[in-house]
Amino acid sequence: MSGLHRSPYTGFSTEFTEYRQYNQGDDLRYLDWRLLGRTDRYFIKKYRADTNTQCHILIDTSASMNYAHTTSVTKFQYAQFLAGSLAYLLNRQQDAVGLVAFSQDVHTHVPARNRTGHMRTIFGTLSLLEPGGETRLAESLHKLAEILTRRGIVVIVSDFYDQPERLKEAFQHLRFKGHDLVAFHVLDQNELDFQFDDPVLLLEDAETQEQMPVLPDVVMAGYRERMRRHVEEMRECAAANHVDYELLTTKQPLDFALFSFLSRRAGK
Amino acid sequence: MSFLTPLFFLGVAALAAPILVHLVRRTRARKVQFPALVFVRQVPQRTIRRRTLQNVFLLLLRCLAILLIVIAFTRPFFSGGSAAKQSTGAGATVILVDNSLSMRREPLFSEALKRAETAVDDARNDEQIALLTFDKRYAVINRFTADKSRLRTVMRTLSAGWDGTDYEQALRGAESLLGEIETSGPKRIVMISDFQQPGWAQNTATFKLANSTELLPMDVTGNDPVPNIAITNVEARGVVFGQKYLDNLAVHVSNFSDTPRDHIQVDFQINEQTVEKRDISLNSRDTKVIEFTGFNLNEGANRCTIDIVSSDFAPDNRFYFTLRRETPAKALIVESASRGQSDSLHLQSALTTNDDLPFTFTLKSTGSVDPTSIPEYALVVLNDAGPISSGLAGALTKFVEAGGQMIVSTGPRTTTDDLNSNLQRIMPATLREAVQTKAGESVAITNVKFDHPIFEVFQESGRLAAAHVIGYFRSEPGATSTVLARYEDGSPALVESRTGKGRVMLFTSSLGPSWNDLPLTPLYLPFIHQMVRYAGAREENPWYGLGETFTVRKEANGQPPAVDTPAGARLSEARNTPDGDLLVTAREPGFYRLRYSSQPGFAAVDSDGAEGDFTKLNFGEFISGVTGGAGAAEGTAASRNASGEEVEGRQRVWWSLLLAALLLLVAESVLARRTKMVKMVG
Asked: Is B634's pLDDT higher than 50?
């Protein structure tokens, strides 16, 4: 496997990319002497540089991620598997992988490294994470945009329960810092369908513990419409900010989710 | 609004059930953690409030449905006010109270009197009211009066009778009474009865009430059919002359209910001694005929009863009738002295083969008859007697005029001049020439009066025409004579006439085989017997229907006997015929005792068998029939004063209520399915 992505940087390496006219000041080491001998013209050979990039995986640990209805796997567990898999793949191609966990605030930060044994740190940290607290996704992203000084890839795994306008600003902030953004929107299927057998439910907000009596058959249509609109807004927000957006439900096999995503990333 | 069965209002307690369920079985919501409450919150919460309201609405629907069902079971009806009070002017009302036998069922008649009193009370003070009772006839109890207290007093003296019912007669009486009064107000007939179907012959009814007369029927019975078994008829010959009763005594037993009945015991008693018992079964609406025969009878009048053992309406479970065994009277057969072989052989044989004939016969030749002995006989048969002396002819004429019976038959030895002249005063026809058919030809007896007692037994078979007549006398019937049968050429075959108190029958052919083959046919015996029985004229009805008038013959001293009613009271209302016989009108069922000085006689009286059929007549058709088609409207109008059950039965409000309850339950079911019977927490 040659890696998750192509390097955003071009440099001097073994892989030829193009010729360019020699300009004054260019390093003569890269002058194509053979071409000069044959044609008496000055050309510089350019090569694509195989560079190691930094990739930070941001995982949402808010209480809302601790929800499972359709399957026995909570959104947080799904996010853990996803983050672990991505970290492993990145590490295998010698990229530096970092991990950031946040809920109300960034509470865990494993800096990006690519040395041997770093994966143990990543996996260990992932396994120790516990969901809890409220989501303040936009604030956390803004904060991370300031923390992550070196530009790289930022993978966000969250249920994105925040206002798309605020997330849009956060995405713009990260993009402005030069990061390539990937957003995994992890949801339980029931969060999309709102399918309950009970005639009435007392719904409790996982983060605020606010309780609310609900008639699922009555609320279902309105809820689905609002959720559909939210996902749509998220998709539009991501597209507008060149963020790779992928909606995943916990009932989807993880390999399917990764394959789908990597296929789309293959061209970048 | 009134209610037939208000006790069902206790069922209102059932309303507690849905309320308790509503309060106790509040659906407890399961607490579920959900991350996306932000979107749920955005759904308008008025839906839940509406749902709560829907639940209350569901509760109301259920309660209302139960309430409607309970009210339906109480069988409500709209009684409205009295028609009499609603009218503007004082009118005339005829109250018809049914006092027929069927009203003896408790408590129908007392209920009828209550209704009548209510009708009187409801009437305006200046209303003219007449009171009639009716069974098969009507009786004016009180003509029009405004004195209500008098009417109430009169009503208390009324009681149910024993006769059948005839609504048409009752309405005729009421209408006729209404025609006697001039009034500007409405005319009404209040008919209080149990409204039996047999009381109104729909097919033959012709009477229509005047358009200005309003009929207000009041039914004192419920709508439930009342089962009953009754003896409706007994067919018997009232007088016999032998010790054994050889005919078939037919008893008709009817089941007037829709359910079959098994093991009904029928008990036949003569003079209070059981003669025979039968066990029968009857299908629904079935009539069975039971026959008894071969039983012995005492001399004189025998009181016979047929009883059925049944727990229903008792008066029609017993049927009374009498069978009288009498000593045969003396009869004389006179034949020609010049006979070679007795021409009366066949006649004599026919008259002696049955010991149940009203006569014992003596055969004499014309010459050997002592004219002075003629009065000893009750019947004289001149069988081709030949020439008759003037002395004998005079004796016979006196005999007939005094009440004797005579049968004259002709034949080869008959001399027409002799008969025509000597017996001119009593002969029913003048004999003309004798007719002899050609060899091998014959004439038949046709044009027979089958409704005559002599020929009624041949009515169904019609086989009288099978006799071949080869000789007969043409004759000219007298002005007062009746031709009972003729030959094919139209000449009279049998002629009857009454002279004085007696009767003479002339058969213009022979009663022997000389001029016809009648004695060789099976017709001969019944023909002779019927003629002799008719001449005997001693038939009497085994029983009389209520209301019928029967004759009680006077005693030898010319005085009629005293008569006791079945209840034991001495009859005082009887009338006499010009002959001194007594005419008694049957007023109650049972045996009327005729206190003859020699031996007592009895006359049995029975009620109308159809009166035991309590099937309700069709009100709509009845009202329509007697009002000329405006039945629906007037029937509805009548219902205001009709009985509660009748009005309720016609209005059928409970149907509508049940239907409404059903619709409510369907609506509730649909609504509940949609809302899943939610009751919110908190």
From this structure: no
